[in-house]
Design a protein that fits this description.
The protein is mostly helical and 317 residues long. It is built from eight helices and no strands. Helix 4 packs across helix 5. The model is unreliable at 66-70 and 242-263 (pLDDT under 50).
Length: 317
Amino acid sequence: MSEPGELQSQLTAAHDLVRQRDLLVTQMVELQRQHADIEAEVTSRADAAQLEQVDVDKLTSFSGAKVWAVIKGTRDIDMSREQTELEAARGLLAEVTARRARQWASIESVRRRLTDLGDVEAQLEQAVAAKERHLISTQSAPARELLALAEEQGRLTAELRQLGEAVEAGRRAGLALAALQSELGTASGWSTYDTFFGGGLIATSMKHSHMDRAAELARDADAQLADFGSELADVTGERGTGGSLEMDGGLRFMDMWFDNVFTDFSVRARIEEAQHKAGRARGGVDQGLHQCERRRADVQSRLAAISLQRQSLISGS
């Protein structure tokens, strides 16, 4: 086992590497910002040089500008002026292009230095872990505090994993309910047309086609809601996200073959009831997701605090 002094030196060196990395990252961000500005300037200078070249070409080729300059007797003067402006534009373009190359070289230099540093976080964690093992072996007061922090960290890490699973299940349930609500909306539109505007056999067929599809989506949403409810119970101890959404198959035969106001209104009411239940379930899912996200943020915050507290204990002991 390494001596305490050696362990502390390794820890100090690891912290120094992290600071170097942070400084280089800050430098890289600034260099990349400057590089973007230079790129914009290169584009502007290139456009300006191109325009000057066009002006020169007008005086060297058969064009209206050349004819007019000859008539005025100013062609040589105009050509000299345009050539001078072209050379100036090319000079500015060359200067900013060279500056871009130097800037890129600086970026590459910083990138190489970052690569050479390696995984500084892993190196720091190794140094912290080595010092932590030494402290725990001493059974001192800091050792007992470190053990308590490790226990809390393990419990919170497990909870964070469960919260992640609950959030994913909630998102799947939300997507399933959104698909169901969309299909119910389409079925409702056909039902309105069939009920109040005498849609006939085609409208009735379309209505029931969308109702059948909605029933399939409701079964899928039910399964996703049950999964979310189970995951939610694991982290909150509470169940229930809106209840079953499945639609029964009643009224199909009468509505199809004995189309009348009573059965049409009954089907429409059934669709509206399903829409209400889907909306209520969606609200329950959103509430559960909000609860999980809020708890996950709290757990992540506490884990970050534990990490800092652990490093502080180890570095100061």
